[in-house]
Write a structure and sequence with these properties.
The chain has 348 residues and is of the alpha/beta class. 48% of the residues lie in helices and 14% in strands. The protein is built from 13 helices and eight strands. Strands 1, 2, 3, 4, 5, 6, 7 and 8 form an eight-stranded mixed sheet that branches. α2 packs across α3, α2 crosses α12 and α3 packs across α6.
Length: 348
Amino acid sequence: MLWEILSNRTGGASPTAGMAAQPVSLALQGGGAYGAYAWGVLDRLFEERALKVAGLSGASAGAINAVVTAWGLLDGGPEGARAALNRLWTSLGQMSLLSPLGLPGASLQFDLMTRVLSPYQFNPFNINPLRDLLLGMIDFDRLRAESRMPLFIAATNVNTGELRVFREQEISIDVLMASSCLPLVHQAVEIDGQAYWDGGFSANPPLLPLALETGCRSLMLVKLTADEEPEVPTSAPEISARLKRILVNAPLLRDLDALSEMQRLLRRSSLLPPDLKRFRDLSLVKVAISSSFFSETGDSALDPKPELVTRLFEAGRADADVKAPLLFPAAAEVEAMPARRKWSGPGQ
C-alpha cells in the first residue's frame, strides 16, 4: 500500500531531531480533488521533527484536510496525521472509481444538469458519500473534547453572504459539510438555524484570524489556485473553469493585501507589545499548485481519480521539499554541513 511506501521514506533519523520546535500555522485553500496537492505538502512537512503546528485554517477541501490533520495529530502525532490523510485521499480515489463522473462525457452532462436542476431536485435525499467517509474516520466528540489544536474553518452564510469561522470546540460533521457545500451540487447545510454554503466564497482560507490568534512565527499558505495561468482561455468550458478559480481566489488575495498592509503599518513603530511584534515579523511561506493541472483534459475538481490524486500528491511533496528550508533554516544548515570524521585515535 501507498502508506507503507511513505512510512519507509523516513527510516533514518531526521537532521532536525533535537532542534527547537518551530511554531508554524498552516492555511489550506479549497479546491475539491486538487486538495490532494495539499495532502502531499502536509505529508512532507510532517517528516520534519522540528515542526510544531500552531494552528490550522481551511475552507472546503482545505477544511477537510485541516480537520483530518488535527484528528490524526490527536490520535497518533505526526505519523497519525500522515496516516489519516493517506486514508482520506486513498478512500476518495477508490470512491471515484465507482462514480459516474468518470465516464466519458459525464462531467459535461453533469454541468448541464446542474444548470437546469438544483440539488434539491436531483438529490432530494441529500446523499453524500463524503459525509459517511468522514464519520467513519473521525470521532468528532473526542476531537472537540481533547484536541488543543486551534482550528479556523470557513463557511458562508447563505442569507447574509458573510463569513462564519468555526473554531475547534465547534467542529462537527455538519461544519465540514457546510464548509465544502457547493451550491449547485449539495443542499445548503443548516447549523443553529442558519444555512451555509462553501467557505471558499468568503475566506479561502481564513488567513488573518490564523495569523492573529495563534503564536506562530511562520505561516505556510497552501494554494490550490496557481499564482499565474499564462494562457488566455478561449473555449466555453475553459472560460467557466477559469472564472470559478478567480472567484474563489479573490477572498485570499484580499486577505493577503490586508496582511501586508497591517505589517507595513506596524513597521512604523518600534514600541509594540510582543504579540504585535510577532505579527509584524511573521513570515509568509507560500506553496502553490502548478497551472499545468488545470490544462489537463479529463481532470475535474469534482472527480478525484486515483491517478490524478497520485500526481497531485507527488507534486505537493516535491514543492514542499523546496519550501521546507524557509520554515526550518536550522535544519537546512545541518544538512549543508560536511560530514564529520569519526574519532578513532591519534594519528587519524
